[in-house]
Design goal:
The protein is an alpha/beta fold. 39% of the residues lie in helices and 15% in strands.
């Protein structure tokens, strides 16, 4: 039995560059060997053929929204129902993994029953098929040191968690903003260890443009991202890597690095995480984001006056 199930929803294998980087990513997952099983989910163009080519499991039947975008809830349910592993990991389909991915997940699973592992990525321009032969990891890591760039702290391109977690997920659209932030929010408010593994897990994000999205727009500008935000619970539920409460470093769990920003953020989210109060959560959000608070008050009273 594998130690962890990796699952993903690839983009259509139409654009030559997108096709190349997704195949690079999948081949890196396969290179992890029997430690992992791999699921490709969704019936986008070419996914079935690539799954057959690489000998990984394929699940086409995924629920979609009115725009035809796969739903996160359905994707995660498929992975949960079919996995033979106690650990699951959703990964964006352009991410190259190394052996430290499974190793770090095993360390955490031996310590906690419930948790969520997240982390920063390294951005790298990849313009060729990666040769996954001997020493491929060393070669790529050298290229990463020379040309790669650590992405700013924000969301995460992977989510590692045990089967006991994330059984009830709103109907978010995959590949749009908001749903990944909700994953952080859910872990913190459920008091599952939310662990930043940036120092222990190195992943490569192969750079690409947004031609695969409607009108070539970044995902956070699309109407579906607005829907995701509402499903998540609004701005107060938009958590990210600053909200992790532990980190994995040198095989050991350590507290998060403290800074003025981190301390202020913990004060801001205290009502949500520790008091379970959304009303106080909104009040604290308005206090810490006065421009938003001012805009919201104007909007609220504008509606009241309009009704009168």
């Amino acid at each position: 039995m594998s130690q962890i199930t990796l699952f993903s929803t690839p983009k259509p294998f139409v654009d030559p560059h997108i096709s190349m980087i997704q195949k690079n990513a999948i081949k890196s997952w396969i290179a992890l060997g029997d430690q992992v099983e791999i699921f490709l989910i969704g019936e986008e163009t070419g996914v079935k053929e690539v799954a057959a080519e690489f000998g990984v499991r394929y699940f086409p039947e995924v629920k979609r929204n009115a725009q035809g975008t796969p739903l996160v809830s359905s994707i995660f349910q498929i992975a949960h129902a079919n996995s033979s592993s106690e650990l699951l990991a959703y990964i964006n389909a352009d991410i190259i993994l190394f052996e430290d991915f499974v190793k770090s997940a095993k360390i955490i699973s031996d310590l906690y029953k419930e948790f969520l592992l997240v982390g920063q990525r390294w951005d790298l321009d990849v313009t060729h098929d990666v040769d996954f032969k001997a020493n491929w990891q060393l070669k790529l890591q050298k290229e990463l040191r020379n040309s790669g760039k650590l992405h700013p702290r924000g969301g995460s391109d992977y989510f590692i968690y045990p089967k006991t977690c994330f059984k009830d997920i709103p109907e978010f659209a995959i590949g749009r903003a908001g749903w990944d932030n909700w994953m952080f929010f859910e872990a913190r408010t459920k008091h599952w260890p939310l662990i930043d593994t940036t120092e222990s897990i190195q992943i490569i994000h192969q750079q690409h443009d947004y031609r695969h999205l409607p009108n070539g727009q970044p995902h956070y500008r699309l109407p579906e991202s607005d829907v995701n935000m509402k499903l998540a619970g609004g701005e107060i539920a938009i958590f990210n890597l600053i909200d992790t409460d532990r980190r994995l470093c040198d095989g050991k769990i350590r507290p998060p690095k403290l800074s003025i920003g981190k301390i202020l953020r913990e004060i801001e989210i205290f009502p949500l995480v520790h008091l379970k109060s959304k009303k106080l959560g909104w009040l604290f959000y308005a206090l810490f984001h006065p421009r938003w608070g001012y805009w919201y008050i104007r909007k609220f009273f504008g509606k009241v006056l309009k009704r009168k």
